[in-house]
Amino acid sequence: MAAAHQPISMDQPAVLRFAPSPNGLLHLGHALSALENAAMARRLGGRLLLRIEDIDRTRCRPEFERAIIEDLAWLGLDFEMPPRRQSEHLATYRAALDRLDAMGLVFASFESRAELKALVAERAAAGGRPWPTDPDGAPLYAGRGAAMSAAERARRIAAGEPFALRLRMAEALARLGGPLAWTEVDETGAPASHVPADPGRWGDVVLARKEVPTSYHLSVVVDDALQGVTHVVRGQDLREATAVHRLLQALLGLPEPVYRHHRLVLGADGRKLSKSEAATGLAALRAMGVTPDEVRRQIAHGE
Ligand code: GLU
Q1: Looking at the domain assignment, is residue 245 inside a domain?
Q2: Which of 50, 120, 189, 238 is most open to solvent, judged by the fewest CB atoms within 10 Å of its CB?
Q3: Residue 86 maps to a domain
Q4: Which residues of 229-254 are buried (b: 16+ CB within 10 A; e: fewer)?
Q5: Quick one: which of 276, 287, 269 has its CA closest to 26?
Q6: Which are the catalytic amino acids?
Q7: Assigned domain for 1 exists
Q8: Domain containing 54 — which CATH number?
Q9: How many Cα atoms within 13 Å fall on the side-chain side of residue 188?
């Protein structure tokens, strides 16, 4: 396995990407992220790619994709077209999943949400302390899927039962050659810090589900590698996820980009913006006569 921390050479041409999910309209937070990517691409003389993260077919819609492209053009950002659409590359993610499976690092869990919740309560009571949660606050997987035989896994999947395929986190960590880390760069693209990555905090993360044969974590690392992304610029809300991405990159032998996790645009209530807050939606602001320059000014503070 590759050394645990070996970021891409800073001499190679820079490639950046903005990767929205078309499950709603873009808001000021997305505008900041798109602008941060464009600014660094310009500074480094690099490419600026757009990736549509539409693996969740129940929530993503083509009209949101069209609106995203319109909003980005309105902001004056010049992304290379056409975008990479994740829903068109499911076989590629499956191949990566199969590799992890062949390494013995994947198991299937068949518990429903309600069953998992009950198991968490049961195990917390038995242990006399709260069951651990991941960085997003969700309880770690408390089921017993990891112990299931390959034959039973195959039988239950063939029977059509709903399932999630998860990473055997402890085994995955044991395979690493050394501690995992990533390089965080500043807004000029210069290395600013060396951040230790602790993916174990996420437990046995989901890599795929019956209805979506990949996951955010898996497709993002596969695509960043396939698109030759050198600088991942995204919001601080994804900073903890970077630990999982570094782990998957190390396991799959993928190159290691550098990262910049920028501040978030917060709503009036001090919380992260959500796609349902129409007041900060770019299309709504545009309809109200707000100009792209005013949008830039509105989000250009803090840090
Ligand atoms: N699709 C993710 C989102 O909309 C962003 C993925 C990334 O930048 O890594 O939050």
Answers
A1: yes
A2: 238
A3: yes
A4: bbbbbbbeebbbbbbbbbbbbbbbeb
A5: 276
A6: 275
A7: no
A8: 3.40.50.620
A9: 3
Ligand 1 touching residue 20 (CB < 6 A)? yes
The pair of three-digit structure tokens given for residue 171, joined into one six-digit string = 């085994």
* Ligand 1 contact, 37 CB (< 6 A): no
In the Cβ-directed half-sphere of 239, how many Cα atoms lie within 13 Å? 13
pLDDT, one tens digit for every residue, the chain (303 residues): 545 678 888 888 999 999 999 999 999 999 999 999 999 999 999 999 999 999 999 999 999 999 999 999 999 999 999 999 999 999 999 999 999 999 999 999 999 999 999 999 999 999 999 999 999 999 999 999 999 999 999 999 999 999 999 999 999 999 998 899 999 999 999 999 999 999 999 999 999 999 999 999 999 999 999 999 999 999 999 999 999 999 999 999 999 999 999 999 987 777 777 766 656 899 999 999 999 999 999 898 744
Q: Which of 174, 220, 219, 224 lies closest to 199 in space, CA to CA?
A: 174
Read off the amino acid at residue 270: G
Tokens of 224: 């960043």
Question: pTM value?
Answer: 0.94
Q: Domain for residue 50, yes or no?
A: yes
Give 49 Cα–ligand 1 centroid separation in angstroms: 13
Helices marked H in 236-303:
241-252, 282-287, 292-299
Whether the Cβ atoms of residue 220 and residue 19 lie closer than 8 Å to each other: yes
Nearest CA to ligand 1 atom 6: 19
Contact 180, 196 (CB under 8 A): yes
244 C-alpha to ligand 1 centroid (Å): 14
Both structure tokens of 240:
């903890």
Q: What is the side-by-side order of every strand in the sheet holding 47-52?
A: 80-85, 47-52, 15-18, 231-235, 258-262, 181-185, 191-196
**50 pocket-lining for ligand 1 (C-beta < 6 Å):** no
Q: Look at the chain and report how many structural domains it folds into.
A: 1
Protein residue with its CA nearest to atom 5 in ligand 1: 19
Range of the domain at 184: 6-300
